[in-house]
Specification:
- The structure is a single chain.
- This protein is an alpha+beta fold.
- Helices cover 18% and strands 30% of the residues.
- It is globular.
- The structure holds alpha-D-galactopyranose.
């Protein structure tokens, strides 16, 4: 709900559990007054204190009132050059060389339904789901207008934000920074939580107290990156899963980003999230506009679980455009770890023949099917079938797979090219690369300049003929290197600061076209695993390969970190062979299945080597996953332990909305002799219901399972797993 008190210029956004408020204060500066637990309507600007602070300048209109300074007041969208020395959200360079922006309130608009952003991913919703508030600010000297967009999804406690900067002046300006979100909070005793890692070990949970100055994470790789995720949190020092005030902020963007948190001199704090200002500069001629990517906030007054669940619900239902709709998505088998580049049509059909009787429904042909792609040294860019490997083409292969009752899917990496390819030989000028400089290679490949429509159109046409050549129902869209020598032959020197962003816009435009032309195709995102696992990609690709690391134990950590923002239905997760290809660890097959079914569930191993016993396990686990699909994919997620901290076991659960069903998964660590007994306290159940556990005769009271817990059996051996299916027995 949006409440606008036009007399006092007070704007209040209420969600089910939270309230967010702004006020255009003296001189029209838009101040942030409150964000936290839901409050009844009140003007919360009484919370803002000000006093004469040395070295805190006062705007001209304040005359000699020294108590009014942008240096100390909580700003809704911070500027630069006029007295606020904290993190700026907007940096403008005028044609006189000045770098000053001074924003003042000019007006507002309230709209039913959720705003959309042209060419950019955004949460969507009609009237009834969400409402929109737009606040108009202006820098009077340059006549640059800043429109602050707010989307309020009441049921999900979700507030989205985006900013549009319009040059209404008669002179050109240069946008040097335009953040999507600025959040000023009146205290500084927060922990800053970020999700960081590396290839094959993405999104580890990192938490540290905010210290004086600026702390930031971000990416300058051209993609959101394996190293840091564009989702961060601030929380009270003692906050945990079930208690404490916390805020989560995600950026729906797949390129360079920065998430910076600052603790100011007077122990207040500011979070700024948006496109990374480094390598970014957007000239705006008179009449031109720039729209930032969308950011989204959830505040939970009661701990991390509620925060994550709200993000999960909102992402599931108002971000992913899942054209599978209510249909269950297929359990897949992917050829990569089974065959790598070394296969023929016969091998692939054999793999599919092994998979079909086990209940696996989709066969995905990964890398190696096109051009002369017999290794990762060549072939990218040549999107035509390799007839040496697949003599009958994709059509024959797909129909053999279809005849087994399975769907057929394909891997692509459209943004890339190898020098050893027909495409590069024909169009060497289509790659990103700066004049006079050699190209850095990444995985022996170069990056196509996706900011250019002609390049995208060429690849799109090639892809279209592939898609029309066979019955293809799934695509895995990969992106296997970071960007370097970012320079586009299509733009003049003064506009090269646009290229990183235009590259991302180009990827989005391509994906949007694909989505529009082939709505029935399920697209899974990927970037060497989870190098572009973000809300931007999720708008186009409703699931993303979470990590190239399929080891069950490492995945516990990766999926734990991922779960803070992203729902299980978005997390690509497969069972692979042991010893694991990434770390050599051996884990039981059941455990690999338990961990992989906390995501989209699939297989990536050579089933021709599987024993009859292993096949029986796979068939059983696949049937189990299908039986509990809705619970896993749409149930509320509860982290019951913290991997890494709890060395004896890791546990998590899905609970249905009506609390009548739950699936609890437990995975133990390395075995120990004479282990102590373990009791696991569950969460999210209905305290008044009684539950059967794995069909038990005994009924366990919901309150007892949550307050006293459930005793776990002793499991011998390393990395064992257990799943408990709880079903309410009473009406
Ligand atoms: C990336 C992906 C893998 C696989 C290979 C193929 O590394 O993350 O899953 O598709 O590329 O080259």
């Amino acid at each position: 709900m949006i409440i606008h008190d036009t007399k006092n210029l007070l704007f209040t956004l209420h969600t089910r559990h939270t309230t967010y408020q702004m006020k255009a204060g003296p001189y029209g500066v838009l101040l942030h007054t409150y964000y936290g637990a839901r409050l009844e309507d009140a003007d919360l600007s009484y919370l803002i204190q000000s006093t004469d602070r040395s070295f805190s300048p006062n705007p001209a209109e304040a005359g000699h009132c020294r108590a009014y300074s942008l240096d100390t007041l909580p700003q809704e969208y911070s500027t630069s050059g006029v007295g606020d020395f904290r993190l700026p959200s907007l940096e403008l360079e005028l044609d006189d060389g000045s770098q000053i922006a001074d924003l003042r309130y000019r007006g507002y608009e309230v709209r039913r339904g959720k705003y959309a952003l042209e060419g950019l991913p955004a949460f969507y919703g009609t009237a009834g789901d969400a409402d929109t508030l737009v606040l108009f600010l202006e820098d009077a000297v340059s006549q640059v207008e800043v429109q602050l967009y707010y989307g309020v999804f009441e049921a999900y406690d979700l507030i989205t934000r985006a900013v549009r900067v319009v040059n209404h002046g008669s002179r050109p300006v240069r946008l040097r920074r335009a953040a999507s979100l600025c959040l000023d909070l009146p205290r500084a005793d927060w922990d800053f939580i970020t999700f960081d890692g590396r290839h094959a070990m993405e999104r580890g949970f990192h938490r540290a107290p905010l210290r004086p100055g600026v702390q930031s994470v971000g990416s300058l790789r051209g993609a959101s990156s394996h190293q840091h995720n564009p989702f961060v949190m601030l929380c009270e020092p003692d906050a945990g899963e079930t208690h404490g005030l916390c805020y989560g902020a995600m950026l729906l963007y797949s390129g360079n980003f920065e998430a910076a948190a600052e603790r100011s001199q007077f122990a207040e704090s500011r979070l700024v999230l948006g496109i990374h200002p480094h390598h970014f500069c957007f000239p705006l001629a008179p009449g031109e506009a720039f729209t930032t990517p969308e950011a989204a906030l959830v505040c939970s007054p009661g701990g991390f679980t509620a925060l994550s669940q709200q993000f999960h619900r909102a992402i599931r239902t108002h971000l992913r455009r899942d054209l599978y709709g209510q249909r269950r998505k297929p359990v897949l088998i992917n050829s990569w770890e089974a065959a790598y580049f070394d296969f023929s049509a016969e091998t692939l059909v054999q793999l599919a023949q092994e998979a079909a009787p086990l209940g696996i429904e989709l066969f995905v042909l990964d890398d190696g099917w096109f051009g002369h792609r017999d290794s990762d040294l060549r072939g990218l860019g040549d999107w035509f079938v390799n007839r040496e490997k697949l003599s009958g083409g994709l059509e024959a292969l797909a129909s053999k797979i279809n005849a087994l009752g399975m769907d057929f899917g394909l891997w692509i990496e459209p943004e890339m090219v190898n020098e050893d390819s027909q495409l590069f030989r024909t169009h060497p000028d289509w790659v990103l690369g700066a004049p006079g400089r050699p190209h850095s290679r990444g995985r022996s490949q170069l990056v196509l300049d996706f900011s250019r429509a002609e390049v995208r159109n060429h690849i799109y046409e090639a892809l279209r003929s592939i898609l029309s050549s066979a019955n293809i129902s799934y695509l895995k869209w990969d992106m296997n290197r970071s960007l370097t020598e970012v320079w586009s032959a299509a733009l003049p020197p003064e506009r090269q600061g646009e290229v990183y962003h235009r590259y991302v816009l180009g990827v989005y435009e391509f994906l949007e076209r694909l989505h529009r032309d082939y709505p029935q195709i399920l697209i899974e995102g990927c970037s060497g695993g989870g190098g572009r696992f973000d809300g931007g990609m999720l708008y186009y690709t409703p699931q993303i390969w979470c990590s190239d690391n399929t080891d069950a134990m490492d995945r516990l950590q990766i999926q734990h970190g991922t779960s803070f923002c992203y729902p299980a239905c978005a997390v690509g997760a497969h069972v692979s062979a042991v010893p694991n290809a990434q770390n050599g660890r051996v884990t039981p097959l059941e455990t690999r299945c338990t961990v992989a079914m906390s995501g989209t569930f699939g297989f990536e191993l050579d089933l021709r080597n599987a024993t009859a016993e292993e096949k029986a396990v796979i068939a059983g686990q696949t049937a189990f996953f299908k039986a509990h699909y809705d619970l896993i994919q749409t149930g509320d997620y509860f982290r019951l332990t913290e991997p890494g901290r709890e060395t004896r076991f890791t546990a998590w659960a899905y609970v249905s909305e009506d609390r009548r069903e739950a699936l609890v998964s437990i995975v133990t660590g390395a075995a120990q002799a004479a282990p102590p007994f373990q009791i696991l306290r569950l969460r999210g159940l209905d305290p008044s219901l009684r539950y059967k556990v794995n069909g038990s005769e005994v009924l366990y009271a919901g309150d007892a399972l949550m307050q006293a817990g459930y005793p776990l059996p002793m499991l011998l051996g390393d990395y064992q797993s257990l799943q408990l299916y709880l079903e309410a027995a009473n009406p």
